[in-house]
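Page 42, continued from yesterday. The earlier attempt failed because a stray header line got pasted into the input along with the sequence. Redoing it now with the clean sequence only.
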Amino acid sequence: MAVWFVTGAARGIGHRVAREALRRGHRVVATGRDLTAVTDTFAGAAGEVLPLELEVSRPETASAAVERALRRFGRIDVLVHGAHRTARGPLDETTEARIKELFEVNVAGMLAVTSAVLPVLSAQRTGRIIVVGSAAGFSAPAGAGPYSASMAAVEALCETLRAELAETGVHVTVVELGRFATLPTPFDRSPHPPEDPRKAAAAIVDLLVTDDPPLRLQLGADAVAHVEAKLERVAQELDLWRPVSLGTGFEPEDFNRQNGHRPSPDM
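This time it went through. Structure tokens are written below.
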């Protein structure tokens, strides 16, 4: 049985993942900024669950929660970071305060929790870090600029973290969520109907038994469609502008002059 440390466990995808892990017989550290809400949500839940307060914008609460988890269970096997905030609206109508709040919670908060849990996973030489993000972090839709920017930062950090932990036995995955019923999403105009969040949670819990989990996991038809459309656009632009992109090198005589090289007398 694994020990799952889940942020944002009172509601949303964090709650769904925590419930699914408990259903499969795992133990869960369920955290949230409102301890009463977390405790009430898991009252009577089957399995062994430890509700704890954790406010991602206050790093000291992450460290305290990790210490409590270790005292109770002795280890942590999986970190699921499900606590993040969404926002919609055009850029010119988004306040600076709102942008800062999104980055404080979605980016700095994710890093704070990861920093608190990572020493445990690294010492064990095994584990999973699963960050619940959004397909909007890969392909930014109109009306979700600041949110998409924060999710793009999360993706970049996860990619770096995966590379840095490649030899430690700790795997990192960022989940690019699409549109799911009862879950907030920036894809309100998606042609695809909302999908089942229980199946999304099951797919996330399945990552524990995957030997080589992906860096990015798209969940939902609209997430796949957005990623595919961007990959196609990028490939087309790359091909169209390839001559310009590859045309910035020095001509041989300019390179020699720039670097102080003189032609050989025999030339």
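Notes: The longest helix spans residues 96-124.
Reminder to self: strip header lines before submitting.
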